[in-house]
């Protein structure tokens, strides 16, 4: 007697109301989204309910790329971190915000939501209509509960992906963070010089029009303050105070420590320790979580202690248990943690003490390794190389002249020669090229 295969029933043959398959597929696509595609997939899911021409996610979880964008290229290409920070300050609590804000260099209608656990921000922008009017944002017509649910799913997905980021993501994040700081510093130096020159001219006694002089002075001073504020905000995005990073670790582990029955002790770092680059803070929390899980899986472990410290150049992590010292340094989970450490040029030392437990020390450098300096192809004279090094360090002509005990005219002469040999046309280009070759 052969056993027959039961017939396959199609979805539409089941009784009950029809399921919202497009929405369910959109939810599945968000749940499965890589970081690079999450904005596009979230936009596809919420577009039928919110409308709008562009969607922007602003999250400090991703230190290398805090903006994730999809939609109108005019918005996607021009929206800035400063604009998003200002908009986030307008959004109170977990409720929606609607109104007009400066986005991508112009005033636009926008809808915004926060995700409190990570302070991430969702922004949907609305374009000007064909007759020159802004599109209206009507929250009353939205399914706000559904939009909030989809946004929270995406925000949680970002958190999970960053926590479980592979070593390659940490390397990319570090490179992107360093590049953003470098470019911003160059812009600050360039525009600060311009604005200070304007101030000097406006305050000169040779100008007769006092009103014009006062107006120019006020405008230039305001612009200078805003530029320096923007530089500080950019630096804050890619750094996290060590005490704050450690407290986030404690909060992340609170459910685990409460339910495990194991006494987990947290020895806090000094409050005045150096701030951690974002990718180092992310890696440190992931490494400690992994070590705690590995230690808790051992029999007879009753206590685990984790401690962070800073020596000014490195984040020093120590995790110790009171087990039998049977933790295997070659286990797959330990090898994965070792790769995370190596991705940031760190080192991990495992000291197993039979009958006494495991003592693991991790050292994570706070600065990326210096690139090897090779400028032989530029054929710079010794003095020209000295000028370029000081230029790359942010020095101006007067400071370079004082450091080398030469005149400013001589400095200008060397700078012109450096530009010619490097094939660049400005100080900014010369500094950028010097930095890429390891000159600081």
Structural features, described:
By secondary structure, this protein is α+β, with helices and mostly antiparallel strands. The protein folds into four domains: 11-162, Beta-Lactamase (2-Layer Sandwich); 167-237; 242-365, Histidine kinase-like ATPase, C-terminal domain (Heat Shock Protein 90, 2-Layer Sandwich); 376-436, Winged helix-like DNA-binding domain superfamily/Winged helix DNA-binding domain (Arc Repressor Mutant, subunit A, Orthogonal Bundle), CATH 1.10.10. It is built from 14 helices and twelve strands. It has a five-stranded antiparallel sheet with strand order 2-1-5-4-3, sandwiched between helices. The protein has a five-stranded mixed sheet with strand order 7-9-10-12-11, with helices on one face. The protein has a two-stranded antiparallel sheet with strand order 6-8. A hairpin with an 8-residue loop joins strand 1 and strand 2 (67-71).
Shape by Cα distribution:
globular
Main beta-sheet strand count, sense and barrel state: 5 strands, antiparallel
- Number of helical stretches of at least 4 residues: 14
Distance between the termini: 83 Å
Series of secondary-structure elements, N-terminal to C-terminal: HHEEHHEEEHHHEHEEHEEHEEHHHH
According to CATH, the fold-level topology of the largest domain is Beta-Lactamase
Domain module tally: 4
Count of strand segments: 12
Low-confidence stretches: 130-134
Share of β-strand residues: 15-25%
Structural class: alpha+beta
In helices, the fraction of residues equals 40-55%
The Cα radius of gyration reads: 28 Å
Mean pLDDT: 79
Report the top-level CATH class of the largest domain.
Alpha Beta
């Amino acid at each position: 007697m052969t056993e027959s295969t039961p017939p396959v029933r199609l979805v539409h043959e089941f009784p009950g109301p029809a399921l919202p398959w497009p929405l369910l597929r959109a939810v599945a696509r968000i749940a499965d989204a890589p970081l690079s595609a999450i904005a596009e997939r979230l936009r596809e899911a919420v577009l039928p309910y919110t409308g709008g021409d562009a969607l922007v996610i602003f999250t400090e979880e991703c230190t290398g790329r805090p903006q994730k964008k999809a939609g109108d290229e005019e918005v996607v290409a021009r929206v800035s971190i400063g604009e998003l920070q200002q908009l986030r300050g307008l959004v109170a609590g977990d409720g929606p915000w609607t109104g007009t804000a400066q986005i991508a260099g112009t005033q636009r209608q926008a809808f915004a939501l926060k995700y409190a656990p990570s302070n991430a921000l969702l922004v949907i922008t609305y374009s000007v209509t064909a007759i020159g009017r802004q599109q209206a944002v009507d929250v009353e017509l939205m399914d706000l509960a559904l939009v909030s649910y989809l946004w929270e799913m995406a925000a949680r997905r970002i958190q999970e992906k960053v926590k479980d980021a592979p070593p390659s993501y940490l390397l990319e994040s570090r490179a992107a963070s360093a590049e953003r700081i470098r470019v911003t510093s160059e812009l600050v130096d360039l525009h600060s010089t311009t604005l200070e020159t304007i101030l000097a001219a406006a305050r000169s006694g040779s100008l007769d029009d006092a009103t014009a002089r006062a107006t120019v002075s006020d405008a230039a001073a305001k612009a200078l303050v805003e530029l320096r504020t923007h530089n500080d905000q950019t630096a804050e995005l890619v750094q996290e105070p060590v005490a704050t990073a450690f407290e986030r670790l404690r909060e992340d582990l609170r459910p685990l420590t409460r339910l495990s029955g194991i006494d987990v002790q947290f020895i806090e770092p000094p409050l005045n320790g150096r701030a951690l680059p974002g990718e180092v803070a992310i890696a440190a929390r992931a490494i400690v979580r992994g070590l705690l899980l590995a230690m808790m899986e051992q029999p007879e472990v009753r206590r685990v202690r984790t401690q962070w410290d800073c020596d000014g150049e490195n984040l020093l992590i120590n995790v110790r248990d009171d087990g039998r010292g049977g933790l295997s340094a070659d286990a797959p989970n330990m090898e994965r943690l070792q790769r995370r450490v190596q991705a940031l040029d760190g080192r991990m030392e495992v000291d197993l003490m039979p009958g006494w437990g495991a003592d693991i020390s991790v050292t994570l450098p706070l600065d990326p390794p210096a690139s090897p300096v090779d400028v032989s192809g530029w054929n710079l004279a010794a003095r020209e190389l000295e000028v370029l090094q000081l230029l790359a360090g942010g020095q101006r002509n007067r400071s370079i002249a004082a450091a080398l005990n030469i005149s400013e005219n001589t400095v200008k002469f060397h700078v012109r020669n450096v530009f010619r040999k490097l094939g660049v046309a400005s100080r900014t280009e010369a500094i950028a090229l010097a930095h890429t070759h390891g000159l600081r």
